[in-house]
## 1
Amino acid sequence: MLRCPVCHATLERQTKLVRCLNGHAFDIAKEGYLNLTIGHSVKAHGDDPEMVSARRRFLSAGHYAPLKVAVLSELKALRIESIVDLGCGEGDYTQAMGDAGYTVIGIDLSKSAIKRAAKGSSVTYVIANLTQTPLIDHAVDAAVSIFSPFDPHEVHRIAKHWFLVVRPLPQHVVELKALLYPTVRLNPDPAIELPQQRHHHRTEVVFTLDLTQPDLGDLLAMTPYVHTSPVEGIQRVQACPQLNVTAAFAVDVYETCTENGKSI
Ligand SMILES: [Zn+2]
């Protein structure tokens, strides 16, 4: 399923490395992941460490569990076997897909995130650039992008049937924004036009988070608003003992038609 980032030949797995028929070899790290970047493209840190720890605490508290359930249920309805999670980060959703029985590859450019994701996991994790995915053509049944950027041409090349995109809806965390800003501006709808895929359907996942401190502070620290909000706004969030916050996401499913695979 993996291809050599140098010559694009298929990579074969050996004991401690993967190798292509032209002799390009890449070590399997002791945590089990592969680094298939070439040159100097590895991000040493990825997101800033505070944002990463806030997200880790928030997700491991299970606040976004309904989203995880919804993503798994969408995947189940597609009757697929293999998935690539593009921009998988620390593998919170990737691991859930692996546990559900899919053959999963998680790809991210952040070495620290992949290292953490791979520890003790049977999922294949790869450090790679999402614009040069080290996967053979039509390698997987579906590609998934959960809050991460993607390259539509690469998605079309590697995903045989489906592409799932998860993004926040306009009303996502609107109550948090109301504390932060004098005037709340809603985000635009996350619908994306893709050149080679047809929008198949959207499922909206909306639920209420009943948050107290420090979870409320963690939610703020996970968002870009922490860098753009007025100081008074941030102080209002920090001083707020409890808040009901709307979590609202769109799961957009796109269908991709390739010569080799006709969509179901
Ligand atoms: Zn090669």
## 2
Amino acid sequence: MRPLRIEQMQVRSFRNLERVDLELGERFNVVAGDNGQGKTNLLEAVYVLATSKSFRTSKPTDVVSFERDLASVRGRIVEDGDARVQSVGIRVGARTVKIDDKRPPTLAAYAVRTPIVVFHPGEISLSMGPSSERRRLLDRAALYLAPAAMDELESYTKALRARQRALETRGPAASDLPEWETLCVRHGLALMEHRARAGELLAEGARAAFARIASPELSLSVEFAPGAPREEAAFREELERRRSVDARRGSAGVGPHRDDLALSISGRPVRGVASQGQHRAVTLSLKAAEIDVIGGARGARPVLLLDDVSSELDRERTAALFSFLRDLEGQVLLTTTRPELIDTGAAAARSDFVIRAGNLERVSRVD
Ligand SMILES: Nc1ncnc2c1ncn2[C@@H]1O[C@H](COP(=O)(O)OP(=O)(O)O)[C@@H](O)[C@H]1O
Ligand SMILES: [Mg+2]
């Protein structure tokens, strides 16, 4: 896999980061700071640089500083010896993305240029939480496998909303329903195709990672569980049959918006059965699989972001996380309130920073 890294970055008027200029090390970058100082904001800025999107809000303008109209992130990225400059500007009503000062053909084309994987404390919901988290994982992986997956998701979501609006305003006999259902089926089937492929690859990676992380006598199985029949006529029929119920319920009971990844450990469903420690191992395995799939699809090693490491972890779990991290190569940015617990290993190249009230400072190593 080609090496890839973010060499330097300029962040402007991005949440509480008014002006941050940052030179990043090629391996571990440790950002220490108390709560509320801007640690997550900094990782969010890196994620926006790489993908044009945030990992914690779907509303782009949330990241613009309260006092400004425009947030921007610009960075120099080196992939296999070749450098490029990427930039993202966000203001009300507009998002501008550029690679070497040129606009890429689509947002998806921008989003897959710099592969990146983020790991934050809420991630445990991949294993314990609602299916929406796992669909997002599927879609992140699918995007790198085929950027068209993003368009299918968008088209499907539009058609599904239009069908629901028709049902709720004009009832199950509305004349435009067949047209919307045709679109739901067409884009829905394509979307499930992309997700099934992503699911297969994630399953392989997660199984292998789980075998390394958890005890060897347990095995993890991950399987794509489609929210609709994967066959055209059957999917159509289901939609038609459910019109009245869907109108009453306010949502469609069938379709890829209900896709999931079924997770089980040695034959038992993870949900409601697994211990806290097993949920963590499953989550870590899924993230390892995400790194594998995205890196493999893109042919370059993803940048890894880890937010709030060690805030809640005990010593043993921190050690497990770091042995996992040390096995992964590539550039890592991690934030923590407790830098003294971050054991990156004596040999590893490491750059340390401290962040206070949105100001970042390079410091000498704090251990
Ligand atoms: N759009 C915004 N403009 C200015 N400040 C913001 C904006 N959004 C969040 N903040 C501020 O960012 C701070 C939290 O930063 P965060 O990165 O979440 O902290 P932490 O270091 O705990 O991860 C808070 O003080 C919050 O008020
Ligand atoms: Mg935070």
